[in-house]
Amino acid sequence: MSFLPAEKPIYIVGAGGHGRELNSYLRDLQRAGWRGDIRGFLDDAIAFGDYNGVNVVGAIDALYDADLAAEPGYITAFGDNHLRRKIVARLEAFYGERLMAWTLIHPSALVGCGSEIGKGTCLAPGSIVTAKTRFGRHAILNVKASVSHDCTVGDFVNINPGATVCGWVSIGEGAYIGAGAVIKDRINIGAWSVVGAGAVVVRDVPAHATVVGVPARIIRHNGETHGTEKR
């Protein structure tokens, strides 16, 4: 299933590399028939005006009542999960319901029957969500990554390009799944854990752990390095 998101004015929060990607995705949506308005970027660190070919409107708190009258939405452009959560909290505290999180689903992304995609989440080009899978808020499913049936993906998760998540997997809040990683079916990935690029996960991963390798093993937990610990 592919569909065009709500047609409203949109701000991208963050004008870095990921922000420029989101700008490109929005333009792809426009070419596919979406009639929303790309208002520009909000970024604390970059001056107002043109920046690498994109329009920076101002800082994150730069919008006035007149800007908010059209009930705009926003999408964040930060790959770091902790930073993205912090930015979202700041936006919610400053704007309340006057600026609402908006879901970006690229025209080439596929979303299967019975699946739910939370507010503020981005599904990048070529990404796949199959049947009866739930994504939380402000998550990222990056280019050509796939999540199979009956999975649960928490808020602020980042699943990087080419990762494969098999069926019945649960991924906790803020988990980071590296590029090309594979997660076997019926695995639990703990909150704020890290799965290294190319890792193959065949056992559950505790919260706040970092796992790497084939098969994946824990190398760090709560900041403590384990080195040779096996899973």
Fill in the keyword field for this structure.
single chain; 231 residues; alpha/beta; Rossmann fold; UDP N-Acetylglucosamine Acyltransferase, domain 1; 2 domains; 9-stranded mixed β-sheet; 6-stranded mixed β-sheet; 3 helices; 26 strands
What does this structure look like?
The chain is an alpha/beta fold. It has 2 domains: 93 residues, Rossmann fold; 121 residues, 3 Solenoid (UDP N-Acetylglucosamine Acyltransferase, domain 1), CATH 2.160.10. 15% of the residues lie in helices and 29% in strands. It contains 3 helices and 26 strands. The strands form 4 sheets. Strands 7-10-13-16-19-22-24-25-26 form a 9-stranded mixed β-sheet, with helices on one face. Strands 3-4-2-1-5-6 form a 6-stranded mixed β-sheet, with helices on both faces. The longest helix is centred in the first third of the chain and has 15 residues. The C terminus is likely disordered.
